[in-house]
Amino acid sequence: MSKTAKSTAAPVVAKIKVKQVRSGVGQLPAARATLRALGLKRIGHEVIKDDRPEIRGMAKAIQHLVTVETVEEVK
């Protein structure tokens, strides 16, 4: 029988909170599509996504429309 200790602490997964602060009206279609792809629907709407390079890149592409915060969640 193996005597390996299992960690009882829950893993911490980095997340980011993306909040829409400006309207997509009057923006390029690609910017509006990026808002929708992130799940943002209206000004003030917030979504929490995994902190991955793809999501960060999408948020950077529309940085003039959103704010980004890092949050930590216990899985």
Write a concise keyword list for the protein shown above.
75 residues, Ribosomal Protein L30, Chain: A, 2 helices, 31% strand
SSE topology:
Layout: E1 12-20, H1 29-38, E2 46-50, H2 53-61, E3 66-74
Antiparallel strand pairs: 1-2, 1-3
Helix pairs in contact: 1-2
How is this structure best described in words?
It is a single chain. With about 80 residues, the chain is α+β, with helices and mostly antiparallel strands. The chain has one domain (about 10-75): 2-Layer Sandwich (Ribosomal Protein L30, Chain: A). The chain is built from 2 helices and 3 strands; from the N terminus they run E-H-E-H-E. It has helices at about 30-40, 55-60, and strands at about 10-20, 45-50, 65-75. A 3-stranded antiparallel β-sheet has the order 2-1-3, with no helix packed on it. Helix 1 (about 30-40) packs across helix 2 (about 55-60). The radius of gyration is 17 Å and the shape is elongated. The mean pLDDT is about 90.
CATH superfamily caption: Ribosomal protein L30/L7
Estimate what percentage of residues fall within beta strands.
25-35%
Q: Got a strand count?
A: 3
Walk across the major sheet and give the strand order. 2-1-3
Low-confidence stretches: none
Q: Tell me, what is the CATH class?
A: Alpha Beta
CATH fold category name: Ribosomal Protein L30, Chain: A
How would you sum up the global shape? elongated
Q: H/E order of the elements?
A: EHEHE
Mean pLDDT across all residues, rounded?
A: 90
What is the number of helices? 2
Share of helix among residues?
25-40%
Structural class estimated from helices and strands: alpha+beta
How far from one another are the termini?
A: 29 Å
Q: Main beta sheet, described?
A: 3 strands, antiparallel
